[in-house]
Design goal:
single chain
Length: 190
Amino acid sequence: MPRHLILLYTADFYSLTESLQQEVYREYYMLVYPMVYAIIRDHGAAEDIIQDAFMRAIERAKQIEEPEKLAGWLKTLTKNFAISFLRKWSRQRDELLSDDVFLYKEVSSNEIGLSVEKEVEIKMMKEAISRYLDQLKPEYRQIMEMRWIYNLSYKEMADVLGLTEGSIRQKLFRAREAVKNKLKEEWGNR
């Protein structure tokens, strides 16, 4: 086990010097990042998950009965955070909304009087859109997710990705057009 990680168990993390806190976090990050990235396949999301899991680890590390199992416990904790993220993301992705691409917003069929056939068609369209998103270039998929799942502004996306806002807008437009064209190919003008 990396030598500074044990401080999560033996010391009050917040009483450590800033440089020691950074070293503990760096060791934790190096321990779990490859696993989280393999699950999530998105650098930004992996970093968020690692930070959230680290905060939980700070709170609960002292509860471990066998300190030699700390590294394994940290990996399990972080893996569970990553899996929870995937489940949440999967649910949210199905409710993705866009101005230019028709994506279904959950509304009770009683409220708008949809027939069973129409409800089935909408459900099939949602599944198709989800497939189309998975088929996008990774950079386009990432920008679509950042915009409609994480609700980031153009500026925030530009800062995270190191691009200009204009470039973000262009990539987002192209991603929406790609999904819209796929919809037209498969669904026509229904």
